[in-house]
Amino acid sequence: MKSYAYLHSPAGLLEVVECAGKIISISFCDSEMHVSHTNILLDEAILELDAYFKGAKVFNLPLEMECGEFEKKVYQSLMQVPYGQTLSYKELATLAESPNAYRAVGSAMAKNKFVIVVPCHRVIKEDGQLGHYSGIHGVKTKEWLLEHEKSFL
Question: Domain range holding 121?
Answer without folding.
Answer: 69-150
